[in-house]
Amino acid sequence: MKSINSNKTYIKLNSLWGNQNAVIHLIGFVIAMGIACIVLNLLYSYFIGEIGMIITTMKIGLTIGSIFSAEEFGSFHLFIAMIIQ
């Protein structure tokens, strides 16, 4: 009888520990997801920023090219710049 009683307590403790483990895993998962989202957001904004810089540089280059180059060549560049915009 005594062994059965101790077994019940063990099962009770084990189930309690299992619940705690689930909560810890859930918290860990939420934190990991948060960190992943932040990292992805930073990478995304960095790459979008880089692409934006490249496009802006191209626009400036095309505008300068269209001002300083020959007339028909310049209008072609302006046309490309309009398409990009």
Description:
Keywords: Membrane, Transmembrane, Transmembrane helix. The chain crosses the membrane at residues 22-48. The protein has one domain (2-84). The mean pLDDT is 66. Helix 1 packs antiparallel against helix 2 (71-84). The protein is 95% helix and 0% strand. The chain has 2 helices and no strands. By secondary structure, the chain is mainly alpha-helical. It has helices at residues 2-68, 71-84.
Compact summary:
The chain is mainly α. The chain contains two helices and no strands.
Draw up the topology in text.
Blueprint: H1 2-68, H2 71-84
Helix pairs in contact: 1-2
The number of E-state strands comes to 0
What about the largest sheet? none
Q: How many structural domains in the coordinates?
A: 1
- Average pLDDT, rounded to a whole number, is 66
- Terminal Cα separation, in Å? 83 Å
The computed structural class is: mainly alpha
Rg over alpha carbons: 32 Å
Strand percentage: under 5%
**Helical segment count:** 2
Low-confidence segments: none
Q: Estimate percent helicity.
A: over 70%
H/E topology pattern: HH
Shape: rod-shaped
Transmembrane segments: 22-48
Keywords: Membrane, Transmembrane, Transmembrane helix
Output the keywords.
single chain; about 80 residues; mainly alpha; 2 helices
